[in-house]
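hey
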């Protein structure tokens, strides 16, 4: 097994003549995102099914793919893992009324003020923007992400900051969205500064997929701003080794050098990464780039993503295949975010076998049995 995945990244013909300096400029990447059907079709080709899905899903959830991310799509593979994450598929149109929910995590129900979800005692989610460079087809917040009418306003950010300042129980603030790195450097600087000057706020986390979808956004200037604020944790969202590009490596390096603590939150997706070897390769690469695998999320009960879900056993199997076999730091928690706002629970393979009096039998990662004497 390789620890350094290398996939040929061929720049699609549409951008063949773009000078490197422009290609590597995130504002160029942002301005040249593929959003219309003809644009996406030109770069990656579209099957009849995908054309239909594209049109039919358009009013619910926009399409947006950066040139960087589009260049990772294999145009000849309808099952390409990058394609499944960014190009609408017919499964999005399926409706499962029995269990699908618009707001599977009841995030709106736990909002003390608009833009803040306060579910756990000591931490809050703080939605600062509703845009992302690439709209992931598996997004759990499709109901508002990408929708221009729900953009977090300046007022909403002010009321969120005021709530956090007035709520001493909040020690940990997760900036979310959308993607917080879609804010300007100046705005981020201001929000981080104001949060970390609140006495009871211990740390700020930024949940962002930019290192994957728009790694050019991580500029030395952004890194300099982040390095002024401590402690800042950055949760990335890498799902597949194909996303592990030299540009992504550079972005992680800049963030880590800036003093950010990096952790990855992978979403388990059918046909994308529901395979232990794939996850192992990804996690080894992440560790080499100072990013610790933090969570594997079970895909939520959100509308239009059921085709991407796997049975719970798949996540447990992946953890079982990692634990003991690879560095413990490459073993994340497999978690299910319970619908209705129950919060996250983690699932583990069953190592416990039986108890006989004070003797407890376990199986280890190789399946061998061992007895352990437990004290009263
Ligand atoms: C996931 C989540 C958090 C953060 O959870 P951790 O387990 O601390 O990473 C906080 N608030 C809400 C509402 C969440 O969904
Ligand atoms: S980056 Fe996050 S918030 Fe944005 S579309 Fe993807 S999953 Fe949703």
């Amino acid at each position: 097994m390789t620890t350094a995945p290398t996939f040929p990244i061929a720049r699609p013909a549409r951008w063949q003549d773009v000078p490197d300096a422009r290609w590597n400029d995130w504002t160029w990447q942002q301005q040249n995102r593929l959003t219309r059907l003809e644009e996406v079709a030109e770069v990656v080709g579209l099957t009849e099914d995908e054309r239909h899905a594209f049109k039919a899903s358009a009013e619910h959830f926009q399409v947006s793919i950066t040139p960087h991310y589009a260049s990772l799509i294999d145009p000849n593979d309808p099952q390409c893992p990058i394609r499944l994450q960014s190009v609408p598929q017919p499964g999005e149109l399926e409706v499962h009324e029995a269990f699908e929910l618009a707001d599977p995590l009841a995030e709106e129900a736990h909002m003390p003020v608009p833009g803040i979800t306060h579910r756990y005692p000591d931490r809050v989610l703080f939605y600062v923007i509703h845009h992302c460079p690439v709209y992931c087809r598996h997004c759990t917040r499709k109901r508002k992400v990408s929708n221009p009418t729900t953009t977090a306003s300046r007022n909403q950010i002010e009321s969120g900051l005021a709530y956090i300042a007035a709520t001493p129980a909040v020690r940990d603030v997760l900036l979310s969205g959308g993607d917080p790195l879609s804010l300007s450097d100046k705005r981020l600087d201001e929000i981080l500064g104001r949060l970390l000057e609140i006495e009871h706020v211990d740390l700020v986390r930024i949940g962002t997929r930019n290192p994957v979808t728009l790694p050019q956004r991580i500029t030395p200037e952004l890194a300099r701003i982040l390095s002024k604020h401590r402690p800042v944790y950055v949760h990335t969202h890498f799902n597949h080794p194909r996303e592990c590009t030299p540009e992504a490596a550079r972005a992680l390096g800049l963030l880590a050098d800036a003093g950010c603590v990096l952790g990855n939150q992978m979403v388990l997706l059918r046909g994308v990464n529901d395979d232990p070897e794939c996850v192992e390769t990804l996690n080894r690469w992440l560790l080499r780039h100072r990013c610790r695998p933090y969570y594997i999320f079970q895909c939520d009960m959100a509308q239009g993503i059921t085709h991407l879900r796997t049975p719970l056993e798949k996540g447990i199997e992946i953890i079982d295949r990692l634990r003991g076999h690879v560095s413990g730091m490459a073993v994340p928690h497999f978690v299910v975010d319970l619908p209705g706002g129950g919060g996250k629970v983690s699932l583990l393979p069953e190592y416990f076998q039986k108890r006989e009096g004070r003797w407890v039998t376990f199986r280890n990662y190789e399946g061998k049995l061992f007895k352990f004497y437990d004290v009263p």
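The pocket of iron/sulfur cluster (ligand 2) is lined by residues 132, 135-136, 139, 141, 145, 177-179, 209 (CB under 6 Å). The chain has 13 helices and twelve strands.
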